Task: structure prediction
Amino acid sequence: MAYNVIKISRISPATDLVDSLILPLSFFDLVWLKDIPTNRVSFYKLTESSRHSFYSLILPKLEHSLSLVLSHFLPLSGHVKWNQEDPKPHIIISPQDAVSLTVAETDADFSHLSGKGLRYQTELCALVPELPVSSDSAPILTLQITLFPNQGFCIGTTIHHAAVDGKTLVKFLKSWAHICKYGAIPQDLDLPMLLDRTVINLPSELPNLSVDVRTLKLPPVKEIEEDVVRFAFELTHENVKKLRERAKSESTRSDLQLSTFVVTYAYVLTCVVKARGVNADQPVPFTFVADFRDRLDPPVPASYFGNCVLPINFLGYKGKMFLGEEGFVNGVEIVNDAVRDLSLRGAESIWELYEEGLKKIEPGIKKLSVGGSNRFGIYETDFGWGRPVHTENVSNSGNLLYSMSESRDEAGGVEIGMCLKKCEMDVFVTEFQNGL
Result:
């Protein structure tokens, strides 16, 4: 399987920016400053596309629409920069800034990589660009478009998490696709994005988040082992319904709020515990994010550009809770209580929970975390050649990160992208399928 870089372009926003824009990083941005970049790859099938049609028609349209959409998402063309004289970094957008776009070709099997079966993590990581980070500067976004001649193409995105959260990133991708397909901005996505940081009205009781080490360099990520694989699973609407009914029948509680997120997360969590051979007394930490857009007073506008989520670690649970015949219903009750607890807390209380989780998480213990959401509508990214046949978060996390999105072809279903060692994945597939 060979990859050949055809060119690397710099795509500037279609706007006349005279002076540099400087945006402070908000409280929520700084939380993610040292997080690994977020990688996503979306596959588009075009069996009749030749190299000539791709380079003469498709690629120019993608590049032109990218320039147009960047004028509505200006910070994506900029950098996170840290002047050592400043206590905190900033987002800086200069008139000469542009997004790096790599165009590549591969002889890889499009159907294999865009499918839901077993694929090696190294295969998928080759489809997303790197994000070059120095001690004082890091681009916010890099892109890669890879052509599979006469099969299709994929779009790989790599983004600095200190600039945007998942909801903002998906809004960018959907807007880019809409402009490429229709030649105009979508009317239902509140564009251009609001850059004003004063809309983040944090309670005065929250501490002033500081960063101890003044460098933008990210913690080293362990090299991907050859036996690390990905598999995409689907819970159909009927599967979700059956899991919900199973939880109702097996639980003695009547207060459960059995959302699709709760039953999906609980089901994945119990399958992961079994797949990784977790023993009864081993800690099983897990995490998901709390969205603050509607928690602040006043609520944050839908058009706000930036992070507005906080990752919360949930600790104190051991493997025995998720094993055996009662493992799933225990998982449902645990995740349900975690979600409900967050919904009842104010901003100050959630911050305390965040801090407590950071202090108590044990070094070297992997936690299960989720990227994406089944409510983002990521499959609505149709650039004019049909919706993606598959899209997945392929971030190289040191933890057990799995991705979640809505099903492509069915309302109410969920797609799950899981990354594990091959031996663990074999067990996970069995547990996942046998439990439905």
